[in-house]
UniProtKB/TrEMBL annotation:
Its cofactor is Zn(2+); Fe cation. Residues 60-151 form the Purple acid phosphatase N-terminal domain. It is an enzyme of class 3 (hydrolase). Gene3D superfamilies: 3.60.21.10, Purple acid phosphatase-like, N-terminal (2.60.40.380). It comes from the Eukaryota. The keyword Hydrolase applies. It comes from Hibiscus trionum (Flower of an hour). This is Purple acid phosphatase.
């Protein structure tokens, strides 16, 4: 028998609900009151097991794959050999098939100050069948290594597909937790949308490019088995005139090839792919984007090409966020926003994913495109044709957490939290996709933020009213 009167129980229940809903209501959306314990972000030491090179003479290491064409029927396989160039060939075959095929790649090396790279191989496998598991082998008689991947389903409007989302990953203990949580998430990501800032090698003296190698060995356990779609961040620039390194993006462009020519791009920093029911546009915050520049001209021609009857979901990746209410990198994305936001609204982009700020934030559907030099209208307003902006630079790199927010929370900011984590964008059909963000501290099974996305072309209903 209870010793509490029923009114007291009711009160306790209400208080419990308020406490368990660990957010504060502010001017804008929600600022999570979850406080991650302040810990120094420490890189895993070079001898860590996650960095170990495979055994065997000249064994292929740093294996990673990405989409190799515009529609998902090709894969770029990349790897590094340290002792000699070795074989350029990828041998591959369909699951349950005995017919083995070969593709020939190219090998590259580069120098960066006092560092000389290993032999970097890139090989594009073409004419793959959709929705099929393939095995592939790299290396030669000395040491072969075998991996596998599954090609996406044929491009089409109602094809379910699940993307993982990570950014600013680095190679700390926290980075390892983020990647592990992504791998263990029961909602299995089939490809990773990576929003830039990979290794943070440039935080080391002379941009110690050994840290580019260790990073690629660290992520191999995922990136060799599913494509990571790459975006260039500021830590990919590696511009260091003080040591004679004046060619921006040198390590990144040697190590990470993307299929930019397939979308008529003229540089690997901006490009597009179709994958299942998604059209993904990758932009470069660190390449010229003003009027008349190659990126501007490309994007202007690119957006009208997106056929939402074929690929309903229009996703944009860019490193520097346009809507960011943290006191870090504040307004760094502003000039690009001014240039491109009207186009994103016109073409009804569903979601814009960015990194750079080492925390998490999700916006309302807002736009800020009414301004001209006469009217002074420069406030974000609710706009159902606008994308949702997600900042997810919370992979857990060496620079630590961004935990200083602008106050009060702006109205356009729906949810923000200074934690590390990853996200999942799970497309169900042409109208619905379920998005969830998973903070590290809670383990992979606990999501701290989620939202049902309604497609802007097929079902442009206000999600916030649901
Ligand atoms: Fe960044």
């Amino acid at each position: 028998m209870s010793h509490f009167p029923s009114s007291s129980i009711c009160f306790i229940v209400i208080i419990s609900i308020l406490v368990s809903n660990s957010t504060l209501l502010c001017n804008g959306g929600k600022t999570s009151v979850y406080v991650r314990k302040a810990e120094k972000s420490v890189e895993m030491p070079l001898h860590s097991d996650v960095f170990q090179a495979p055994s065997g003479y000249n064994a292929p290491q740093q294996v990673h794959i990405t989409q190799g064409d515009h529609v998902g029927k090709a894969v770029i396989v990349s790897w590094v050999t340290e002792d000699e160039p070795g074989s350029n060939t990828v041998v591959y075959w369909r699951e349950n098939s005995k017919e083995k095929k070969k593709a020939m790649g190219n090998v590259y090396t580069y120098k960066f100050y006092n560092y000389t790279s290993g032999f970097i191989h890139h090989c594009t496998i073409r004419n793959l069948e959709y929705d099929t598991k393939y095995y592939y082998v790299v290396g030669d008689r000395n040491s072969m290594r075998k991996f596998w991947f599954t090609t996406p389903p044929q491009v089409g409007p109602d094809v379910p597909y699940t993307f993982g989302i990570m950014g600013d990953l680095g190679q700390t203990y926290a980075s390892n937790i983020t990647l592990t949580h992504y791998e263990n998430n029961p909602e299995k990501g089939q490809a990773v949308l990576f929003v830039g800032d990979l290794s943070y090698a440039d935080n080391h003296p002379n941009h110690d490019n050994v840290r580019w190698d260790t990073w690629a060995r660290f992520v191999e356990r995922s990136a060799a088995y599913q494509p990571w779609i790459w975006t260039a961040g500021n830590h990919e620039i590696d511009f260091a005139p003080e040591i004679g390194e004046t060619k921006p993006f040198k390590p990144y462009t040697h190590r990470y090839h993307v299929p930019y020519r397939a979308s008529q791009s003229t540089a690997p920093f901006w490009y597009s792919i179709k994958r299942a029911s998604a059209y993904i546009i990758v932009l470069s915050s660190y390449s010229a984007y003003g009027k008349y520049t190659p990126q501007n001209q490309w994007l202007e021609q690119e957006l009208p090409k997106v056929n939402r009857s074929e690929t309903p979901w229009l996703i944009v990746l860019t490193h520097s966020p346009w809507y960011n209410s943290y006191n870090y990198h504040y307004m760094e994305g502003e000039t690009m926003r001014v240039m491109y936001e009207p186009w994103f609204v016109e073409h009804k982009v569903d979601i814009v994913l960015s990194g750079h700020v080492h925390a998490y934030e999700r916006s309302e559907r807002v736009s800020n495109i009414a301004y001209n030099i006469m009217n002074g209208e420069c406030r974000p307003v609710k706009d159902l044709s606008a994308p949702v902006y997600i900042t997810i630079g919370d992979g857990g790199n060496i620079e630590g957490l961004a935990n200083n927010m602008t106050e009060p929370q702006p109205e356009y900011s729906a949810y923000r939290e200074a934690s590390f984590g990853h996200a999942i964008f799970d497309i169900k059909n042409r109208t619905h996709a379920r998005y969830s963000w998973h903070r590290n501290h809670d383990g992979y099974a606990v999501e701290a933020d989620s939202m049902w996305f309604f497609n802007r072309f097929w079902h442009p209903v206000d999600e916030s009213s649901q």
